[in-house]
Every structure is written in C-alpha cells, then in structure tokens.
Amino acid sequence: MSATKFVVGVAAMAALLASTQAQEYRSEDLILCDCGTGDYPDHPEWSTSRQMNWYKDIKWPEDAYAYPDAPDMAVQVPFNDGLYPWIPKGATAKMPNDDVWTAYIEDGTPDGFKAGSAVTTKEGGQMLNCWAYRGRPVSAALNKTVNPDAVCWSAFVCNRDETAPPRPGDMGSQSSTSTASSAPATSFFSTTPATPVPTTTDGEPAPTMTPDTGALFVSASVSPRFINWNNTWESFISKFAWDQTTGRCVAKPVRGDGFTINIDCAGIRIDSDSHMTLILIRALNEVGLNSTWFNQNPVVPGQNSGNGNRTNATSWVVMPESFSLQATDKSNQHAIGYLSYNTTYDNFISGPCSTCDTSRFDSQFFDPIIEVMQGTYPLYNSYSIQAQCHPWMAC
Fold first, then answer.
1. Where is this region: Disordered (predicted)?
2. Within this chain, do residues 101 and 234 fall inside the same structural domain, yes or no?
3. Looking at the domain assignment, is residue 3 inside a domain?
C-alpha cells in the first residue's frame, strides 16, 4: 500500500514539476525583427537580415524610440532565397538553448491586429499569439557584415496576450525607414559589358576584378496613400529643377490643394552626356506615365448624361503622397543618385487607412525604370530594381 502511495506521490510530483516548467515563462515574448540589409553574396541588396529575439518578459520603454533591455536569446533567420520570412509559409529557427520556434505570419496585417502564431516544441508544445507591431527599435543586429551598427526593428510581437502591445504617444502610425514590412518586389536586367571581361594568359596572373563591377541597384519606395495633383503630370515633373554643377535639386516646395510637396534630388555625372540626377527625374516621369501607381485624368463616375462617366475638364493626377528612388553602385555600395518627393498637409488627415497594393509593382512599374537606367551604359551594364511600400499602411 505504501509502495502504491509512493508511486502515486512521485507521479504527482512529476506532473507538478512538468506543469511548473511549462508555466515557467508565462510572460515570454518572441519578437520577429527586421534588421536591414544582409550578406547574401549574390544579392547584397536584398534586405535579408531578420532575426528572432526571445525575452522572458520584455518591458517596453515609454519612449517609442528607446531600446528595451537586450533579449535573453536571439537567432538570425535564414534568408531562404531572399524571401521575406514573416509569411504564412512559416519561418523556423533554433535558439542558442536548442529551443525551436516557427512563426506563421500574414505579413500584410495592419499594425495592432493579430497576424498569426508562433509555435515551439519545448515543454511539450507551446503556442503564442503574434501581433503586427512595426517600427520600434529592439536590439542590435546579429548580422554585422554590411553594417556593424545595424539595428533590429520590431515587425511582429508574439506572446500570450489577447491584444497587441500599446503604442506610445510619440510613436508614428508607421514603421521606421529602417524597416521593411513586406517582401520587396524586384526586377533585374543585364546587358553585355562594354568592355570584355579580361581573360588569363598562360603563366600570367588573373587580373583583379572588383565584384559587381558595372552593376547598378535602384531601390524605390512608394506611399500607399494618394493625393490629387490638380495639374498635368508634365507640370509636376517640371518642378524638379536642378543645378547642373552640383547635381542637386534647387526646387522650392510645391503647393497643392491643402498640402505642400517637398522635392529633393541629387546625383553624380555619369559622362559628358548624362547625369544621374536627370536620369532619375526621367525614371520618375516614365513611371508616372506608365505605372498604375499614377492615374492620369481619372474618370469620375456618375457625372455624364451619356455613359455615366466623365473626365475632368482640367488635367489632374492621382499619385502617391511620397515616392523615392535611390541608385547605388553595387561594387562599392556607394549611393550615386537620389530623388524623392513627400507631402505635408495643412490640416489633420482623417478617413480610412490605405494599405499597400503590391500588385502595382509589375512590369509597368519596373520596365520604365530599367529602360531609363540603361542611359548609364557603358558605366553600368546590369540593373537591379527593388520596390516596396513605405509605410505598409498609412492612416
């Protein structure tokens, strides 16, 4: 009888111990982070550096842009051919203590909403709720190959809470420019180099070649929210006045109906006949004429006696409230040109949120940019174009 009691007592203690271990970190947090450009050798422009940070119980600072304490554990997440890892397919990584976590995320989820789950086999199996929570700095990046000072920013926060973490009052509704909340759309084009690649001669050393010589990388950023420009597209492009000596824009802020558009650009001289600043302005012009991100003279429904549609008597353009292009020489990672415009409003904006429509990043977007970039030939002979929304959602 006593032996039976002893066995039962041991079983009860074992069950209590297992239960205690399973509840050991009830306040644990798994932060899915975006940490900037990684080190995939064939595509250094890919933003491949992602990591999982694990905390026994993270304490968020009151200041939105102050760092919490360092994570208790962290692991870099593989780039998997450059695909953004926080997607429904799932991303798996093993922590330094051998705990394996897998996160299943709907990457287009607006901030503050449940975006998926994170599961682990530790302690008999655990599952956390994951919340979209972009734009807070959380830690230094493990991957320092490209940038030794790289910072990781929150993308999704996984815990056992029933709501997302609160957003501090000084935190904007969007993520930082250092984050990327969606997998960038990318296009690539290459031509034959103007100068043949040197070949070796018997007994002679091979010539030293700089990696990515002749490769140009262009990143584009587009706001998902739109404004109405009450004039022609040509009139807007004409506002990009620039100094041919310095290569910088000298344009003054442009007034619209209830808003101001601020213009900036700069670039280097490519050769005696071409300048990067002008090439970027031409690229913007061609995107505006061809891409569905820009709508020239939209048809207004229900205001015509015949077919129910009409076009405004005056020209106007529906266009993103902000847009930027940056050109980088991949051989040395030096920026050689930059163009942007952004919008400031006279009054507070109200209305529904605008989320990113990645289907607009199509051939009508990429092809015009690639065609214009060929104006840098023969200095550059291959062109990679990457585009993403920033921010993912504008409210």
1. 163-212
2. no
3. no
